[in-house]
Design brief:
The chain is built from twelve helices and eleven strands. Helix 12 links the parallel strand 7 and strand 8. It is globular and about 55 Å long. It has a single domain, classed as TIM Barrel, CATH 3.20.20. By secondary structure, it is of the alpha/beta class. Strands 1-2-3-4-5-6-7-8-9 form a nine-stranded mixed sheet. The chain has a two-stranded antiparallel ribbon with strand order 10-11. The N and C termini lie far apart (about 45 Å).
């Protein structure tokens, strides 16, 4: 196995402090925070993604996404473990069915890299959270009975950690459900382990057109020559439509120029910017939160001065399962003592803490 083998990348992930210190120099604060954060959250990074880190820059945007920081250990009053109420809307293990026409299917607990701002930090890396083969069949039967469903979203963890044969089986079963219009795959492997996009995987994808992939680039430094090669080959061979959702992250991409550079680079390799997310109110996100007023100002600079095809929608996924709302002066409701008041698509009011 070699560097370009995705299984080698997974098997050689750095998962503990001792191995990490053998690869990069850590500050005393990073070392202390790592030990404390490790008691609650898992750590893992592929050799590929770690190599993208700039060791001479303490503010490296990749470094900040990889390493635990002090804010990760602070729980604000508005932060909870399951901010999107995914467990509340779970009729079958692994399936979140919140909207009538679409459902999320959590089919893997493994990620190539465990992002420090992840909404699912509570359960990624826990094998018991992932449906087994028998539970796959229960989920598939549930999808068959829900005739209002138009879309199933494969998520995780990262669904592309499954084997090609498993993905082939799941996609094949889903494609046989007559009321499903299309399938979506959410994955960060194009960012953290692009060599997973093999020719054999592309062959699987090409059998089940149309498939839509949503990936997760947050900074232009994450787009390497390897990214370009594997993503562009997948689009051509797998006939995949690829979109990107970023999270607005303090000190990483909360700047109009950085986001503009990212979005133009994405378009140049065939990825359409889709969403720019306000950070979810999940425990451990304190250091990443960008004030909404600043986010709206950044978005105004993008919207007014750059090609429309490069512009994502700036959204907030409402805590408590209220769904996404657009963040703009036209949608921002009144300010409250705790934060802001929004109305979702049904007219229900939700208070957002930041």
């Amino acid at each position: 196995m070699t560097w370009s083998d995705w299984k080698w990348q997974l098997q050689n992930r750095i998962t503990n402090l001792a191995d990490l210190e053998g690869k990069i120099s850590l500050t005393e604060e990073e070392r202390d925070c790592f030990a404390q954060a490790y008691e609650q959250f898992q750590f893992a990074v592929t050799p590929y993604y770690l190599a993208r880190l700039d060791q001479n820059n303490p503010n490296c945007p990749i470094r900040k996404q990889i390493l635990p920081r002090s804010g990760e250990l602070v729980r604000r009053p508005n932060e909870i473990d399951d901010p999107l109420a995914e467990e509340t809307y779970m009729p079958v293990k692994g399936v979140t069915h919140r909207y009538p026409d679409r459902a999320i299917w959590y089919i893997s607990h493994v990620c190539a890299v465990y992002c420090r701002f992840c909404t699912r930090k509570r359960k990624v890396s826990l094998p018991e959270e992932t449906p087994n083969r028998n539970e796959w069949e229960k989920a598939l039967e549930y999808f068959r009975t829900q005739t209002k469903l138009r879309e199933v979203i494969l998520s995780g963890g990262d669904p592309l950690t499954l084997s090609d044969s498993s993905l082939d089986y799941l996609l094949g079963e889903l494609k046989q459900i007559p009321h499903l219009n299309h399938i979506r795959i959410h994955t960060r492997h194009p960012v953290t382990m692009p060599m997973r996009l093999t020719e054999s995987l592309n062959s699987v994808f090409s059998k089940y057109f149309p498939i839509y992939m949503v990936t997760h680039f947050n900074h232009p430094n994450e787009i390497s020559e390897e990214t370009k090669f594997y993503v562009m080959r997948m689009i051509k061979e797998g006939h995949i439509s690829v979109f990107n959702q970023s999270v607005l992250l303090a000190g990483i991409n909360d700047d109009a120029k950085i986001l503009s550079d990212l979005n133009y680079k994405l378009i140049s390799i065939g990825i359409k910017p889709y969403y720019l997310h306000q950070c979810d109110e999940v425990f451990g996100s304190s250091d990443f939160v960008v004030p909404m007023e600043k986010g709206i100002e950044i978005y105004r600079k993008l919207r007014g001065y750059h090609s429309g095809i490069t512009i994502p929608s700036y959204v907030k996924d409402l805590t408590g399962g209220g769904g996404k709302v657009l963040l703009s002066p036209n949608y921002l409701q009144k300010k409250t003592e705790k934060g802001y008041l929004f109305q979702n698509y049904l007219g229900d009011e939700y208070e957002v803490g930041h």
